[in-house]
Amino acid sequence: MLTRYLLCWFLLAIVAIANGILRQATYGKHLPELAAHQVSTATGILFTGLVVWVISRFWPIESATQAWVIGACWLVATIAFEFGFGHYVAGHSWGRLLADYNLLDGRVWSLFLVWITVMPYLFYRYG
Question: Whole-prediction pTM value?
Answer without folding.
Answer: 0.91
